[in-house]
Amino acid sequence: MYIQNSHILLEDLRFYAYHGVSPQERQIGNEYSVTLKLGMDLSKAAESDTLEDTVSYAEVAEAVKKEMDIPSLLLEHVCGRIVKHLFEHFPPVQEIRIELYKRNPPMGADIQRAGVSMTCSRHL
Q1: What is the pLDDT of residue 110?
Q2: 115: which strand partners?
Q3: What are the catalytic residues?
Q4: 32 CB contacts (<8 Å, ≥6 apart)?
Q5: Do the beta carbons of residue 15 and residue 34 sit within 8 Å?
Q6: pLDDT digit string, tens, across residues 59-101
Q7: What is the DSSP secondary structure assignment for residue 117, as one 8-state letter?
Q8: Quick check: 24 and 83 in contact, CB under 8 A?
Q9: Distance of alpha carbon 97 from the chain centroid
Q10: SS3 at position 23
């Protein structure tokens, strides 16, 4: 069997964190969600059925939590830190698509959430 593309997916990880430009956001906090698509070769794990041949999504979720716990002004900065952390600690991951949303952002508009997304590669 040849696997053309393979990904580990974590959808809608939820956190309470203290990110934002306004002092009020950094003091009161808000609800956030993160969705990840980690591009990597899963062919060995598909055959072996062993965790050593893949990346533990529980460990990935814990790494994301560590970065979400560090306050930042911009969601772009939080995404950049998460991506850097994942590339440093999970060598099999070659590409990361991340979406980070703030629920009910304080912007004077009727909006459910606002956020950013990035797709990053380990190499050019």
Answers
A1: 87
A2: 101
A3: 102
A4: 14, 15, 16, 17, 19, 68, 100, 101, 102, 103
A5: yes
A6: 999 999 999 999 999 999 999 999 999 999 999 999 999 999 9
A7: E
A8: no
A9: 8
A10: helix
